[in-house]
Write a structure and sequence with these properties.
The chain has six helices and no strands. With 161 residues, it is an all-alpha fold. The chain has a single domain (2-155), classed as Arp2/3 complex 21 kDa subunit ARPC3, CATH 1.10.1760. 27% of the residues are buried.
């Protein structure tokens, strides 16, 4: 249930931010932050988590970007990286922030390289795009991390099985 609620909230926030910043380089990536936040709720069922990442990426492609299967593949790859990091490091706020920063930079560089090679976007916009994405996602991620932490504790929902 918490996975569905956070996913819906993320898509709504993504829509609101995209409407507000339409036409600018500022793209929020709230959904990517939610993918990282929700991994512990899959209780180490990696197959379901990977399907979740792919489906969320496909919906993101379908609704926001129109680059079918680009974000699906990148979100799936990010899901694999998240599982690896969370499997080898403790689950705390500091690790989450480092993971978030790394994966946003990874997503931006990967997608910009693909777009640059195909001639869709100049590479000079990369650093501004990373900075803007990091700023909003650190704020959103920190806020959601603590909300999910306290909601999980209050409702006795296991975050890692």
């Amino acid at each position: 249930m918490i996975i569905l609620v956070v996913s819906i909230i993320s898509f709504i926030l993504e829509y609101v931010f995209n409407c507000f910043f339409h036409g600018s380089i500022f793209v929020p990536l709230v959904i990517l932050t939610s993918i990282i936040l929700l991994e512990p709720y899959f209780c180490k069922d990696r197959k379901k988590y990977f399907i979740f990442c792919f489906v969320i990426g496909f919906l993101y492609d379908l609704i926001y970007s129109g680059n079918y299967f680009l974000d699906s593949g990148l979100f799936l790859l990010i899901g694999v990286i998240v599982c690896y990091i969370n499997g080898n490091m403790s689950n705390n706020f500091f690790v989450f922030l480092i993971e978030l920063l790394f994966l946003i930079i990874f997503y931006r560089v990967s997608s910009f390289c693909i777009f640059f090679v195909n001639g869709f976007i100049p590479f000079s916009l990369l650093f501004r795009s990373i900075y803007c994405s990091l700023l909003l996602n650190v704020i959103y991620g920190g806020f959601m991390y603590f909300i999910l932490y306290f909601v999980s504790k209050g409702l006795h929902i296991k975050r890692i099985c």
